[in-house]
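Budget justification, computational time. The allocation requested in the original proposal was used primarily to generate structure tokens for proteins on the priority list. As evidence of use, we reproduce two of the resulting records. The first is shown immediately below.
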Amino acid sequence: MKLAGSGNPAIASVAANTSGGQIVVDISGGVKQSGIYWLNIGSITEDAIKAAGGFSRTADLDAVGKNINRAQELTNHGKVYIPKIGDSNIVYTNPTSSSSSANPLISSPASLININTANNSELDLLPGIGEILSQRIIDYRLQNNGFTSIDDLKKVVGINDSRFEQIKDLVTL
């Protein structure tokens, strides 16, 4: 079931029944219908792709084959990003259990997001960073001739110490 928008009575009934065997997952990128989907506990990445209408024409299927484990079990409140043609060389994954990190990115030098060059969709992959904060990061970068330190992210309105702690190991200059 896709979470379509506020005011939808079906959403309220499903949201009230999260203990009834469902998880909620955010899927975006190279799929036909990016969005928030309610899936059964035990669902895998492939189930999320199918719920989102399958791959879009912009999906980078070579990158999907190399970087996405389509058989990996999803966790509640997880994010799945399907690489699109032209995306930078970021490696994506999903946590496999609720005890693992809630971070959807593999933290390795090849996967770090450069806050001085990343676009909105790349920044949006960071935990706790959505459309608004990704634009604020870009605005700060433009107004200040780039970031000179990762700690400068704390100067962006909306990035408090807690949010900074979530993303500091996932970004680079």
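The second record produced under the same allocation is shown here.
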Amino acid sequence: MANSIFTTLRGLMDSSSIDDVASRLGESRQSVSRGIESSTATLMNGLAHRAGDSTWISQIHNLFSQAPSDLNVSNLAAAAATPGTATGATASLLDSGKRLLSGVFGGNQSMITEAVGRASGLRSGSASILMSLAAPLLMTSVGRWIRETKATPGQLGKLFADESGGVRNLVPAGVTEVFEGRAVTHDTSRPLAMGVVRETKRSSPWMWLVPLLVLVPLLFWLINRARTPEVHVGTAARTVNLGEFYGRTLPDGVSLNIPRNGVESRLLDYIQDPTKQVDRNTWFDFDRLTFDTDSATLRPESQEQLRNVAAILKAYPNVHMKIGGYTDNTGDSAHNLTLSQQRAESVVAQLTNLGIASDRLEAQGYGETHPVADNSTEEGRAQNRRISMRLTQK
């Protein structure tokens, strides 16, 4: 089920689409990517919290079922960034996305949008536009899944409930408490129907834009959900919350904007701590690195973290690093070993292209050996599919 949605979502947004949205909004690509992740996670959690309402989930099922199978992301983004310009099917889809966000967030929609903006480093207007872009993308992807699998409203509710747990750490601070405290005022006065919905005087311009922000983030979430942020030492692993992004200046004057609990921050702490000696057991897992399925081709969204790691290596020229590739135990072990080696080499190649001398890096694939979680569960297999770093000199 998740694989079906994941495959669909990956085809909706690519690197050029993200760049286009960032250019239209006048925001950094990094902030737009974070905003997409945060807004999608927030919407999914909102949907999950209402999934037990059979009447409401039936309306959502109907709304999603009627969403188009395909859409032009560029046209949708342009229409979201310039309110009032959309016509025809695009206008109808944007309006339906607005209804979705209003139905999920109700009277707390403005507060939640502002929280997404703060967490992502976006202006509130940009966060609203991203949310209004994501909603129809989500409807399109999930709607396709509903039609292909003939899923019932109950199965759709289970999907939201199952998927929301993996993205809870991407929801802005305070928003989850709103859901869990039942403080969200839901708009149940009107059915959630497809079609053009006219604006009323009570709707603010930002509220109109909010619907679009939901699916683009879901793309990144689903891509990354199989790579829950973690750090492992030897064969032990623990899940961590990436935390808020913050600025960190390197010795050469370069400033990074990185997650407080992300791998870049932990790697820097390790390098800068004189009491930490290089050993063969301390590994750091990339937490925002993704590949095409069964391939060593890195996804575009991996570039941000690779650039950050390259910047760290440039700031500390004495540091040498080993990149390790790992898989779960699904399929042929020889194939898994080859794939893990190719993926590790792909990361090394990218770091070399970013200006790191090749003699400072080495790659090794370990296949399905050294698992950090139980391969008998999907969650465990997801944790075992990873790329890790180990310092060999500092």
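A brief technical remark on that second record: Residues 182-191, 193-214, 216-240 have pLDDT under 50 and may be disordered.
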